[in-house]
Design a protein that fits this description.
Layout lengths: L4 E2 L24 E6 L3 H5 L1 H10 L7 E5 L6 H9 L4 E7 L2 E7 L2 E4 L7 H8 L5 E4 L20 H8 L7 H15 L5 E4 L6 H16 L1 H10 L5 E4 L7 H9 L2 E2 L4 E3 L4 E4 L16 E2 L3 H25 L5 H6 L1 H15 L11 H12 L8 H5 L2 H19 L4 H13 L17 H11 L4 H4 L2 H4 L6 H17 L1 H9 L2
Parallel strand pairs: 1-10, 2-3, 2-7, 3-6, 4-11, 7-8, 12-13
Antiparallel strand pairs: 4-5, 9-12
Helix pairs in contact: 4-6, 5-7, 6-7, 7-8, 10-12, 10-13, 10-15, 10-16, 12-21, 15-16, 16-20, 16-21, 20-21
Organism: Pseudosulfitobacter pseudonitzschiae
InterPro entries: 6-PGluconate_DH-like_C_sf, 6PGD_dom2, Mannitol_DH, Mannitol_DH/Oxidoreductase, Mannitol_DH_C, Mannitol_DH_N, NAD(P)-bd_dom_sf
GO molecular function: oxidoreductase activity, acting on the CH-OH group of donors, NAD or NADP as acceptor
Length: 492
């Protein structure tokens, strides 16, 4: 295109006809939701569902106010405010590309060390939902016990300074305290992260943190607020030069576009203490059995992502679709899904574990989605403990095979050593990278050094049915290479 149209309200009518734009009057929208964590996933998923309702003439009093508790998000805040909080969503279907401008977000709060503006906004009675996408590892959960990590310095700080907290959860507690004092009912806390029982985990964090400083407030929150569980699903790559170029190819000057696959799913427990949008009219599913859906997705898709990404990093395969095109990685992935994960997943209405495995294989192989192995491998300390190890423990308890899951852990250990097999460096890619790398280097000669990280593995080092194949696979990876180990497993 010769001329780019800047993405802002005043220029929407000038965008190319092929680009879908808001048909509602954004000046008439009022806020009902504060969303903390304005990453690509939220803008392609929850914001999109709300936008679709608004396109139907519905939910105009449920617009989103964005928020963050991380100063690192300040540049993104500036980018979004400069374009009136509009986002171009670019769907990457193998058959072609399409673009849609989403307008359900109407503001982005200042990012402050004491979170005063965020607390004030959440205390406003008009806000009926506070939603979060803060990553799986961001909920202050002990990875072994699953309980609240009350000893974490952030939680200790927020308990000691409840009026000037540093975390999203401390800000929620402070806002709920103001609502209680004013006689205002609580809001619903809605986690949109890939955690099994994410609503229950959010309740645990908020109520437990409140209890450290104000037990009566904690009881009020626990009794009156709601925290629905939900399962979210859509593959949304990070935005880089290629994604910016895709927006420009549509004729749009968007500083923060989002690409996504041609699939979305949102399954929600219908437990909202202050009302909710009718997301089901935009394709979401309300059900009392979120656990079945989320177990299938987290165990098969999210754990499957880790199977691919760690192997891909070691073998210098840069994308998830590239991993699916790599015979050894794909064969490993497919066998683990079939033999070691599917037996621990129950069917849900309209979907068996076997058919879901075929669906995610097709989605992962979509070459139009440039989803990097680095992005998917990020924060393995949370993703392995949250996605892979629970299946491993179930397999050990049931006496079903765990050889492939043990190999997956060995691949993670090899990746964390920090080099690929071609000699290139793997840049730090985990909040705990330094300690992981130290353990990975030691495990090259002594595999037990990796399993000695009890914060992830608990007592698994003492379980021969796991520790022995783990040590055997890690030794093979270092001696013969990752591809040889993958092939040996796939051939049985």
């Amino acid at each position: 295109m010769d001329e780019l149209i800047p993405l802002r309200d005043a220029a929407l009518a000038e965008l190319p006809d092929a680009v879908s734009v808001p048909t509602y009057d954004r000046t008439k929208l009022t806020a009902g939701i504060v969303h903390i964590g304005l990453g690509n996933f939220h803008r392609a998923h929850q914001a999109w569902y709300l936008h679709r309702l608004m396109q139907m003439g519905l939910a105009h009093d449920w617009a989103i106010i964005g928020a963050s508790v991380r100063q690192a998000d300040a540049p993104q805040r500036a980018r979004l405010l400069a374009q009136d909080c509009l986002t171009t969503l670019i769907e990457l279907d193998p058959s072609g590309v399409s673009a849609e401008v989403v307008g359900s977000m109407i503001g982005y709060l200042p990012i402050e060390d004491d979170n005063a503006a965020l607390i004030a906004q959440m205390a406003d009675p008009a806000i009926r939902i506070v939603a979060l996408t803060v990553t799986e590892g961001g909920y202050y959960v002990d990875p072994v016990t699953g309980g609240f990590d009350a000893g974490h310095p952030d939680m200790q700080h927020d308990a000691a300074h409840p009026d000037s907290p540093r975390t999203a959860f401390g800000a929620m507690v402070a806002a709920l305290a103001q609502r209680q004092a004013a006689g205002t009912p609580p809001f619903t806390g809605q986690s949109c992260d890939n955690l099994q029982g994410n609503g229950a985990v959010l309740r645990q964090t908020v109520v437990s943190l409140a209890r450290l400083s104000d037990p009566a407030l904690a009881d009020w929150i626990d009794t009156n607020a709601s925290f629905p569980n939900a399962m979210v699903d859509c593959i949304v790559p990070a935005t880089g030069p290629a994604e910016l170029a895709l927006a420009r190819a549509q004729g749009i000057d968007d500083a923060a576009p989002v690409t996504h696959e041609n699939f979305r799913q949102w399954v929600i427990e219908d437990d909202f203490c202050a009302g909710r949008p009718d997301w089901n009219r935009a394709g979401a599913t309300f059900t009392d059995d979120v656990q079945g859906y989320e177990s299938m997705k987290i165990r098969m898709l999210n754990a499957g992502h880790q199977l691919l990404a760690n192997a891909g990093e070691i073998l210098s395969v840069p994308t998830i679709s590239g991993c699916m095109a790599h015979p050894a990685i794909a064969d490993f992935f497919n066998r683990v899904e079939r033999d070691e994960i599917a037996p621990h997943v129950q069917p849900v209405p309209g979907m068996t574990p076997e058919s879901y495995a075929a669906l995610i294989s097709e989605r992962f192989a979509n070459t139009a989605i440039v989803d990097t192995t680095r992005r998917v491998a990020f924060d393995g300390s949370s993703r392995h403990t949250g996605f892979v190890l629970p299946i491993l423990r179930d397999g050990l308890a049931a006496g079903t095979p765990v050889e492939g899951l043990a190999l997956a852990e060995a691949l993670w250990a090899r990746m964390c050593e920090g080099t690929r097999e071609d000699g290139s460096m793997i840049a730090p890619n985990d909040p705990h990278w330094d300690s992981l790398q130290t353990a990975a280097i030691a495990a090259k000669d002594d595999p037990a050094a990796w399993l000695a990280q009890t914060q992830y593995y608990g007592n698994l080092a003492n379980v021969p049915a796991f520790a022995q194949p783990f040590g055997r696979w890690l030794a093979m990876i270092w001696t013969d290479g990752a591809e040889a180990a993958l092939t040996a497993y796939a051939k049985g």
